[in-house]
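2024-03-11 09:14:02 DEBUG pipeline.ingest accepted 1 chain
2024-03-11 09:14:02 DEBUG pipeline.ingest length=131
2024-03-11 09:14:03 DEBUG pipeline.predict start
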Amino acid sequence: MMNLSGDIRLNRSSKASIKKMIIDAEKVLKMKCTLFIFPEGTRSKTGQLGNFKEGAFKLAQNTKTTVLPVIINGTSDDLLSKYGRFKGSHTVQIKVLDPIPYSQYQNIDTLEFAKQVRSLMEKELNNLRTV
């Protein structure tokens, strides 16, 4: 299914796979196509944001791409297992934040940019949870 939908494959234990993933992702972004990246690298088991990895932000800087942060709340293991099986009925919230154009982060270190985006997303996630 991943191949049919055009997903970019990644074997985290293979340096060659990581390199190919970066090349493929850059091609997608340079074609002005949308690329969804989960900067934590995996799903949270607790529902809390984990640390963001730099890769997504390096890709954005290398391709001068606008970043569009999206928050998804309510997809814990009680709703969707890591293996894609839905369990019962739950409310899921999605909030699309304002786009961050390249001009706003072009001179920021990628690690700092990742921290800023994570902080913004954590604040908005907490706001969603208090409503």
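2024-03-11 09:14:41 DEBUG pipeline.report The mean pLDDT is 85.
2024-03-11 09:14:41 DEBUG pipeline.predict end
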